[in-house]
Amino acid sequence: MNPVRETTADAEDVRQGERLDQLCINTIRMLAVDAVEKAHSGHPGMPMEAADIGYVLWTRLLKHNPANPEWQNRDRFVLSAGHGSMLLYALLYLTGYNVTLEDIRQFRQWNSITPGHPEYGLTPGVETTTGPLGQGFSNGVGMAMAQEYLAQHFNRPGYALVDYFIYALVSDGDMMEGIASEAASIAGHLRLGRLIYIYLDNRITIEGDTGLTFTEDVGKRFEAYGWHVQKVSGYDLPQIASALSTAQEETEKPSLIIARTHIGYGSPNKQDNASAHGEPLGAEEAKLVRKGLNWPETLFHIPEESLAHFRTCLERGRVWEAEWRRLFDTYATEYPDLAKQWKERHEGKWPEGWEEGLPRFEPDQGPIATRSASGKVLEGLAPRLFALLGGSADLAPSTKTYLKGLGKIKVDPCGRNIHFGIREHAMGGILNGMALSKVLVPYGATFLVFSDYMRPPIRLAALMKLQVIYVFTHDSVAVGEDGPTHQPVEQIAALRVIPNLVVVRPADANETAFAWRFALNRREGPTALILTRQRLPIIDQSRFASPEGVLRGAYTLAEAPQGTPEVLILATGSEVHLALAAYEKLVQDGVAARVVNMPSWEVFEAQEADYREAVLPPNVKARVAIEAGVPIGWERYVGQEGRVIGIERFGASAPGAVVLEKFGFTVEAIVGTVMSMAGKD
Hints:
Blueprint: H1 3-39, H2 45-61, E1 76-79, H3 85-95, H4 101-105, H5 135-154, E2 166-170, H6 172-176, H7 178-190, E3 195-201, E4 204-205, E5 208-209, H8 218-225, E6 228-233, H9 237-249, E7 255-260, H10 275-278, H11 283-293, H12 304-310, H13 312-334, H14 336-346, E8 368-369, H15 370-381, E9 388-392, H16 396-399, E10 417-419, H17 424-435, E11 441-447, H18 455-464, E12 469-473, H19 491-496, E13 502-504, H20 509-521, E14 527-530, E15 535-536, E16 555-558, E17 567-571, H21 575-588, E18 593-597, H22 601-605, H23 609-615, E19 623-626, H24 635-638, E20 643-645, H25 656-662, H26 667-677
Parallel strand pairs: 1-2, 2-3, 3-7, 6-7, 9-10, 9-11, 11-12, 12-14, 13-14, 17-18, 17-19, 19-20
Antiparallel strand pairs: 4-5, 8-15, 16-18
Helix pairs in contact: 1-2, 1-3, 1-11, 1-12, 2-3, 2-9, 5-7, 5-17, 7-17, 13-14, 15-20, 17-18, 21-26
């Protein structure tokens, strides 16, 4: 062949390839512009700036199968800058996920699967719900920790069953949020080599240039964290692809690719302008963008050549998944027990007989704090449940959550203990990322008062219906001498108002075991276990009802001797013991009292009406609720004629028993209140 002709043909192929690349990239841009304009709402700037990066990643490096978004060994993609959701929706539609062009047209509309920020479980291919900045960043770290652990547990020589990467697009806003710093620090410390983040360095936030508030060297900061850092132009496709490939090869460090980009790229008057962030371009500016890109006037125009090129992802994905399934079939023959574990956990099942590991406590064992009982439950269950792992925000000795003999994650083979460090916020986000594996059930522990630091990821776990377990100890003013800064009075009430979060406050060690049983069987959302620092007596089951009542949220613990109560005493946690002591005194005085233990309002509300009315008979108006916290919410159970013994102020520094007494949590106060209501004072 004539070398000159061959060179000319090669050059033409390159030109055609570059033309097709640009056509595909502009397809992403204009889909975003049109969707935001039609909705009269949205964030066009980020999809316009990041279209090149999204195109390269999704069509050249991301291992995924659009026909099966749930394929277990797919790479994960997190759009941490969730306001740029149209970038993700465009990529999902174009590459062949079950997202249609009509779905794109319905962007941000009622009942659409293309909401303003990506929502896990709503849109096929969306890996996590990213709303508040920084949450997706920490979720990705949790996904990488899950990948490392699952690879250690399941992979065998010649069988890389788990070898996926976690990619994320992060923004200036993510980098400024404290949760991202916390998560980046632990990711670097753990050397999470399959974590690859692309930072869109556009230097613009809502208020203007990032120089207003953000002048640090991000690259050097991440190098100090222990990350591998590269810098690229966000519009040089070979450079982007090369940086991503290099990041894949770096297995000992997480990778940050700093891409210099321009918000609103391609908009003559809004590029590099804060107005491109959170508002439509406007009809006239959209026309100018079309003109600059030589794009047809037709809204939602999809060039056939572009769509065909994107849809090649379907065939590649089919081949990747088919190869993996053949690998798994051979693996299942050689390692049948591991294959069974894999299948069971992906179906949400625990091994048969796991509940036999739950300890039983007897009254003659003496008082035990529910935090300590929780630790004994973990000791009994963890060896049976490989998918149960977690840790504490530097408080394992206090929260009793360290799994003895099961090693540390990343440090020991299949280590199960995670030292989160003093990073409560990141711990919450990381737990969500781990739970998104749909295999692991992670737990995280800290003092109840610090649950405030975790509120955003707790809320997102509830929104995503993730099985995450929170162990919150030191649950009341009985904490004592540490004083009001460490005495939670409003935190239980604050947690109870989060939709789909179940709060369980057990009254003794056996109830704690049932609380764990409940949490491990609850797959449709997170559970918060509220546990004591102080020791509590073990309730005598020969005299009072079985702790199995925890599974129904509330139950009659002590019945009126006459069978028909004239007064109801409601309590949770440590206050149940005060209620029982008051009950004994009241019965002696001839008062027909019933003690109702209410460890979980949410579970009780889910019971059938007949059961709820049997526990709380509507005709019994004399009711007293006891809880060492703010009384808000208890009015729904005690009614207008009832009373609540609670706390209307912050706590105080003194021994725990003294604090409780000063706040009125005594048998005498309860008896006096009940006698007054019964007209017998």
